[in-house]
Amino acid sequence: MIIFNKHKYLIAVLLGLALGAALVVGGISAYNMIYPSNSAKAGIQGTALVNTSAPETALPTSIPDIVDNVSNAVVYIETTVESNAASNPFLNDPFFRQFFGDDFGLQPKSRVSKGVGSGFIINADGYILTNEHVIDNAKEVNVTVKGFENPFKATVVGKDFDLDLAVLKINSSKKLPYLNLGNSDSMRVGEWVIAIGNPYRLDHTVTVGVISAKGRPVTISDESSGKDRVYKNLIQTDAAINPGNSGGPLISLNGDVIGINTAINAQAQGIGFAIPINTAKEVLNDLIKNGSITRPYIGVGLQDLTKDLVDYFKLKDQNGAIITYVYPDSPAEKAGLQQGDVIIKINETTIKNSNDVVETVSKAKVNDKMVLVVYRNGQTLYISLVVGKKPQ
Fold first, then answer.
1. 53 catalytically annotated
2. 62 classed as catalytic
3. Full-model pTM
């Protein structure tokens, strides 16, 4: 009897444990069904805690150390620009100046203005990279380097309006800090970047953001020249870029320069642009050695074909680019190209629009020979020309 009671007791205990386990499992399952988001968050948090694959250099907490390492090579640029300011409105009339200017002492007065910007030293020899619009029309350029008591007088070694790049040179008896030029092509959208510059004369201001987009085309009107600057491949960032930041470096979390801060969108917040450093690296030697960039040139103005033009010229389709203007003494003029010619092929490249012509010519070298297939007055012509050097 005692043995039988023990067996009954043991069976009851085992049944109780099994029932309790079933209740616990059922409760957890029910909780997950009712609150699935909480269980998902718990899983994400758990994964993040054990994720150690991200390199330490990719953490935003390293930004203060990066700034300490690079900021000394970021320079403050101040320019002096002279322009003629007429004190009398009649001086704007050339005939009035011719007959009365000398007699009445109404010669235009020289007006001096100051400009500011940023730049950065790229090697120990004192070469500085900045924007062309920072030093445009400057009679004098002074550069202040952190840690040096007096500003340096800088020489403009080379510049290019189209790319908005300029190289300056300063001479120092002491060792100069400089920055490493990185690889902008390897940067990805979403990566952290640091902008350093001198906005509103506030030297060495640091802002932080991410790369918002790459390859942005932007057109900005240049007030001093009256021309439009057409940027084709800018880096977009939400790091604050304000007036005076122009020419300063955009830094990766490796401490390398991956862009040159250039422009802001005045109509929106959090949208700034930088020239990719790879664009500057491609032309840096030309700017230093020659003072300018050698570009291939054929000397034509172009327009895409519209349906109306296709009907007018009795073309098969809209593929091609029509010549709207032939520049005097250009390779195109010497080869016999005319206004109204439709370029449909260059060498082995089929031309679909005017941009195809620009891209094809830009890949050529000065003195290269090209054969253009053009349509003129119902006839297909083959015209050879020699690529020239684009005038400044």
1. no
2. no
3. 0.70
